[in-house]
Amino acid sequence: MGARWRVSAGLAVGGACAVSGQIILLRELLVAFHGNELSLGVILAGWLFWAAAGSWLIGARADRFRHPVSVLTLVLTLASLLLPATVLASVCLKKAIGASSVETLGFFEFVPAVLVLLAPLCLVLGSLFAIGARILDDLAPARNEVSRAYLLESAGAGAGGLVVSMVMLPLLEPLRLSFALGAVLLLVSFLLAGEVPARHLRAAARAFLVVLIVAFAVGAVSPRADALRRRIQWQGLDLLEAGNSLLGNLAAVDLHGEVSLYENGLLVATSGYRFHAEELVHLGMVQHPDPGSVLLIGGGLGGALHEILKYPVEHCDYVELDPQLIAMGRRHMPPQELAPLDDGRVAVHCVDGRYFVKNAPRKYDVVMLDLPGPRSAQLNRFYSLEFFEEVRRILRDDGVLVFEISSSEVYPAAEQRLLLASLRRTAGLAFPRVATLPGDMCYFVLSTGGASLTEAGAILERLSVAGIETQYVRETMLPFRLTPWRAAQLEQALQEKEQQARINRDFQPLGYLYDLAQWSAQFRGPLRRWVGKVIEARRWWAYVIPLVLFLVLAAVRYAGEGRAAGAGTRGIPSEGRRLAVGAAVGVTGISEIVFQVTVMVGFQVMYGHLFYRLGVMVAAFMAGLAVGSFWLWRRVEMSPARAWRGFLQVHVAILLYPLVLPLLFRCNLPSWLFMFLPAVSGILGGLEFPLAVRLWQRSGRGVGRAAGALYAIDSFGACVGAAIVGPFLIPLLGLVGICWWTALLNGCTLVLLLLPSRQPGRPARP
User: Fold this and answer.
1) Residue 152 in contact with residue 7, Cβ under 8 Å?
2) CATH topology of domain 274-510
3) DSSP letter for each residue of 82-141
4) What distance in Å separates the CA atoms of residue 147 and residue 635, rounded to the nearest whole number?
5) Is the pLDDT of residue 762 over 70?
6) How far apart are alpha carbons 532 and 312 in whole angstroms?
7) 638 burial level (CB within 10 Å; 0-12, 13-18, 19+)
8) Shortest CA distance to 85 belongs to which of 50, 45, 120?
9) pLDDT category of residue 308 using cuts at 50, 70 and 90
10) What mean pLDDT comes out for the span 217-237?
């Protein structure tokens, strides 16, 4: 195998392991932070920030390395060592901060911890592309090898991410999987070590790598490493089982004889604990005079099914997304807790709840939603106007929908009031009657028929007539919870926010922004104030951002041209236009994040959350990057003027794509075709990046330096997008609004590219 193919293998495997490591660490860190939408943005932004820094730092020196293949070998070896070390350190995160296994970390504790944790690994992984591009260009300078390098890394990332997320994660626990990935990296390092120039160093390097490969292979097959990881992660609790499914991180623990199930760090169910289940079920079931058909979405392992079956129901559909959660419950929870799953009246469906509602086989008297609040874009779909309308269509006359949202027993905080008022306004557009029951959990009763029962006396009387025995929802507790003054306090609180609260829709998911504000109110620091400012801001402020950015970059460009003594020859960008090329690459990084998030949210809304298909969509994006790079790689001879024209054409296409997306949302595309929309944006990115590197080289920069700098700019743009687009701009502007915002951002960059040079008559710098 020649040096060129060994380096190519290093880039492909490095890309695969980088994306795989990102998937593993996202899961581990989301457990520590309990899956909040902002936490996802922080993790992705931190990863991309350090990758950008690594690419910039190494790219600036890549052209000076005397033996770049040796450097690439060292980088891959370091990545193999750092990947399992970072996975193990991620479970020590809470212990290092002084938090318990099930405690929620504060935002300003989590952010610095994540940034420090990810820095070493991401700095190393970020340097791979710049070094690989430099080596391939040295080996075949006339073959447009930057496109080949981008193709290899993208193809490896797409294939590796798909295989790991769909196949490997359910089979191997995180630390063992990271050892397996590290062993693959070490094998490639062993092949590259054959290119080390000094014979004695080559022999020593290969011997060292063989020892590491054996050690990593043992770590991949031995369960001891992950047993240590689990003991650290669940310290203080008796861990019965832990593992990954396609949908998340699952764990079963025993505390004082009671078994609890956790999903992504959140408590799902505890054996013997019925307080929550009793409140939800009985406050809902008594609203219907004869509840014969019931739909329960979530919560079946927490006792809700037990309480539902106390009524003379004819049929109950129980929907739970993850079948592995039910399987783990069957293995560890007491048999009496799981008896309702085998009752002839209960049908268990392991599918997305929204998808089930859209395709419901029957109509229902009562629908119960036992899910967390709208804390993410995925969960927000169960609290939108469109979902409420879908539920109403499957309810019979006098049908009822019941769900709960975190509140306060006395008077909700301002952020809680805003979320509750928004959901009440939203529900009121779909249901003729919306009642709210006060307490630490505010219960919403949405009815298509008569008035809801909201007084304790009426609820207790109906329970008595039906002969329902309860432990918590009884005369000793319920009258205290539903006192008239509590109901009056809640009504006053919601009316105060009625005008400010906006409707929560599928394509404008304000619910999870309001939930983020409620969550941020738990912690000290400025986060609560920042989120409040975002909510209060008018939408037009977001559209000012691209215009301000354009003015700043235009001023910097002209100032730079004045110092640089001029423009290029015909068809070759000037120094000022080189700045515009870099800005365009950064904006494309932001745009790619927007395109991916927008299409994924749109897919979930229209077709239900089919998890494995989201993995296919990520793979489709990476495949698109590879296709675009491959197309350019085949165009070996490309003049500077042609590269400039091609770059402008691609950026025009990137400008038009977000204008087309809202139209595609309305076309009811088949789901299989919709999944491949990310491939289109991937192709555009794969075409633009190699052209940008070619244009930067014309200003006197080597391949390694240009590739490293532009890769860093692209990653930094994606970092900014991950930090602000998902958590803030999408709920604020909506999916259509964020598409228009992205088009405006790209339009400003296109104008920046087309601005005439300040001194068009002077020759280009060498």
Assistant:
1) no
2) Rossmann fold (3.40.50)
3) HHHHHHHHHHTHHHHHT--TTPPPPHHHHHHHHHHHHHHHHHHHHTHHHHHHHHHHHH-T
4) 10
5) no
6) 47
7) middle
8) 120
9) very high
10) 82
Query: At 565, which amino acid appears?
Result: A
CB-CB contact of 271 with 334 (8 Å): yes
Report yes or no: 321 and 248 within 8 Å, Cβ to Cβ.
Answer: no
The DSSP bridge pattern shows strands 433-437 and 346-349 to be: unpaired
Is residue 131 within 8 Å of residue 62, measured between CB atoms?
yes
Q: What pLDDT is stored for residue 766 in this prediction?
A: 35
Helix (H, G, I), strand (E, B) or coil at 245: coil
* CA–CA dist 504, 506 (Å, integer): 7
Helix and strand numbers (H, E) in the chain are: 32, 11
Q: Tell me the fold of 1-172+174-222.
A: Growth Hormone; Chain: A; (1.20.1250)
Of the two residues 174 and 528, the one the predictor is more confident about is 174
Contact in structure between 602 and 660 (CB atoms under 8 Å): no
1-172+174-222 with 274-510: one CATH topology?
no
Phi then psi for residue 511, to 5 deg, are -60, -40
Sign of CA dihedral 123, 129, 131, 134: negative
Domain boundaries, the chain: 1-172+174-222, 274-510, 537-758
| R_g of the chain computed on alpha carbons | 28
Reported residue count of the chain is 766
**Three-class SS of residue 63?**
coil
List 137, 226, 317, 370, catalytic entry: 370
In b/e form, how buried is each residue of 443-468, taking b as 16+ CB within 10 angstroms?
A: bbbbbbbeebbbbbeebbebbeebeb
Give the DSSP H or E segment for 458: helix 456-466
764: DSSP letter? P
Find out if CATH 1.10.10 is the number for domain 537-758: no
**36 versus 532: which is more confidently predicted?**
532
Mark whether 440 is an active-site residue.
no
DSSP assignment string, 544-609: HHHHHHHHHHHHHHHHHHHHHT---STTS--HHHHHHHHHHHHHHHHHHHHHHHHHHHHHHHHH--
- In terms of pTM, does the model score above 0.85? yes
Quote the pLDDT of residue 561: 64
- Helix, strand, coil shares of the chain, percent, nearest 5, are 65, 10, 25
- Taking each helix axis from N to C terminus, what angle separates 611-633 and 145-163, rounded to the nearest 10 degrees? 170
Which residues pair with residue 719 across a beta bridge?
A: none
Which residue intervals of 309-397 are DSSP H helices? 323-332, 335-338, 353-358, 377-380, 385-393
Instruction: Describe the crossing of helices 224-233 and 174-192 by its angle, rounded to 10 degrees.
Output: 130
Ordered alpha helix ranges (H), 608-702: 611-633, 640-665, 671-674, 677-697
- pLDDT over 80 at 760, yes or no: no
